[in-house]
Amino acid sequence: MRGVVFLGDRTLEIRELLNPEPASGDVVIDMKASGLCGTDLHTFRRPRAEIGDLADPKVRGHEPCGVIAKVGQGVTSVSVGDRVMMYHYSRCGRCRMCRAGYTQMCIEGALVYGTTENGGHEDYMLAPAWTCVTLREELSFEEGAALSCGTGTAFHGLKRLTLTATDTLAIFGQGPVGASGTAIAATMGVRVIAVDVIPERLEFARRLGAFETIDARKVDAVEAIRELTHGEGADATLETSGIPAVRVDAMKSTGIWGRLCFVGIGGETTIDISGQVINKQLTLYGSRTFSIGGLAEVADFVVDRGVPLKELITHRFPLEEAVEAYRVFDEGKTGKVVFVWD
Fold first, then answer.
1. Which of 233, 279, 290, 339 is close enough to 156 for a disulfide, judged by CB 3.0 to 4.6 Å?
2. What's the domain count of the chain?
3. Is this prediction's pTM over 0.90?
């Protein structure tokens, strides 16, 4: 079978690998869709010297979705032929974080499929059976892949903000995570102001339901948000870019008694605690993906509330076109990009 590995300096390779066989408690997933995520780009762009052992790198892709092809001994939670999403974390199963379903927060340290373990950019993926979540029939495999990280991350970040239809929400960044947030919040009846610097993504945000879009290359995003909110700032803000300067703008754009949730991964950020947090009585949240139960929850929400998730997926590539897929995604002008299998 084939699998995609990163070699550093924006290069990758499709390698021939042995087909996996499930041990006790494991399954093999016949991959049908595997999403490309912004966090993949961090590794894709990393210098070659930082990649590690190029003779045995891990298969990338942490948004796997497919059909159960084989089950190991003792597996009863899923059967061959089941359509599943895969929760891409595993670990001890004993600590309080694992018992609560937040395996990515495992106190002993999580295993991450697509980073420390082989991920979904391969024809067949080996996974613990308990990480598989049923994919509802109303959802395509591509939608299941999007839900498995990016869209699920946006949904659970929005949940931290306890939004109502009376709120104005500013979303900084309209990549796949931010665009997911725009679509979900608009479905909830929230007034969304979408901020980005790429015209294609701003146009995409409008199609997904943004009330207003702001091109931060052309105008001061903080001032523009204040103008749209009677000088008060947004009731709530979701920051998805991880860029330090954008994080600061998100804080400045949030009004008195406002709520701000950070989901974008990035470097260190310097903030004025007194002026930007205390004096405005802000509530700050950090939200890191979601629990395994949260994956099923966001899938139900998308189906039951009619979130236009299909529109989020703008590019589909077969695995053999992995070089082109990552080149296109790296340009930053797409919605969700996924590998698909017939």
1. 290
2. 2
3. yes
